[in-house]
Specification:
2 helices
């Protein structure tokens, strides 16, 4: 996997994870506390971590299968 492909997978994973985390934190806040607030800090942190971890782990798994 080259750098460009890894970057595209990072951006895609980051965007999807950020959107899902924003929706989940909003709904959690709305249901649990009665105020619809988004926890941006947690959403960005989760999106950044999974944006790195998932593409890298997929690349490592693909590399092991080729051997």
């Amino acid at each position: 996997m080259n750098r460009k492909e890894l970057l595209v997978k990072f951006v895609t994973t980051f965007a999807v994870t950020l959107a899902v985390a924003v929706m989940v934190t909003y709904l959690w806040s709305l249901i649990r506390h009665g105020s619809g607030a988004v926890d941006w800090e947690t959403s960005f942190r989760l999106a950044f971590i999974l944006g790195i971890a998932l593409p890298v782990s997929a690349a490592l798994r693909r590399g092991e299968k080729k051997k």
